[in-house]
Write a structure and sequence with these properties.
The protein is mainly α. Helices cover about 80% and strands about 0% of the residues. It is elongated.
Length: about 200
């Protein structure tokens, strides 16, 4: 799954190209997308006669919300407007993600400070090797755990949600992101002609 920042730039580019009259396959083939190889495959299938609705329904490299809104926008003839809306949405998500990442820096900095400060007696007593060993014993497992969490979070959104909900410094980010997605979906469906009741169900 592409990052929100990259998706925002891509959607903004798509909106500009479509508003300038560039056909959709050529707009999708423009460089700068979230996944060049998968983009090329999508463009190839569209040029071979596949429908945009069918392709968007099968895409796995875009968030499901994006695919649903793009299909609704294409059906209503509002694809450029939907692309701009998604660009704005993903810009907001990227800002929230940055703020959540910054919120995690403080506890990580405290742990690193403790890892360097607590074994200082070994350094004072003249055993630099023992000091380095004590620091490594704390930091290497921490880094390995963080790397493993990063991989799991990227591949399993449900696990990421559950973990973030338990962290006081990140749960606010999760709630704000959920509300942002909900507002984007409702606005997109209502703008594409659905009633508020049908938009809520969608």
């Amino acid at each position: 799954m592409a990052s929100s920042r990259r998706l925002a730039a891509w959607y903004f580019q798509l909106a500009q190209l479509l508003e300038a009259g560039v056909p959709l396959p050529e707009a999708l083939a423009a460089p700068g997308g979230p996944s060049p190889q998968l983009q090329d495959a999508l463009v190839g299938r569209l040029r071979a006669g596949s429908s945009l609705d069918a392709e968007l329904a099968e895409l796995r490299w875009l968030p499901p919300v994006d695919g649903a809104l793009l299909r609704a926008g294409a059906a209503a003839g509002r694809l450029p407007a939907v692309c701009r809306q998604l660009a704005t949405h993903h810009e907001g998500v990227a800002r929230l993600a940055t703020r959540a990442a910054l919120a995690t820096l403080y506890p990580l900095a405290v742990v690193h400070l403790g890892a360097f400060a607590l074994p200082l007696r070994h350094l004072v007593l003249g055993s630099a090797a023992e000091y380095a060993r004590q620091v490594v014993y704390v930091l290497v497992p921490l880094w390995l755990v963080l790397a493993a969490l990063g991989v799991v979070f990227n591949r399993h959104a449900s696990v990421r949600r559950r973990v973030l909900a338990m962290l006081p410094f990140a749960s606010g980010y999760q709630r704000a992101r959920d509300l942002s997605v909900l507002a984007t979906v409702l606005e997109g469906h209502v703008a594409n002609g659905l009633s508020p009741v049908a938009a809520w169900a969608a």
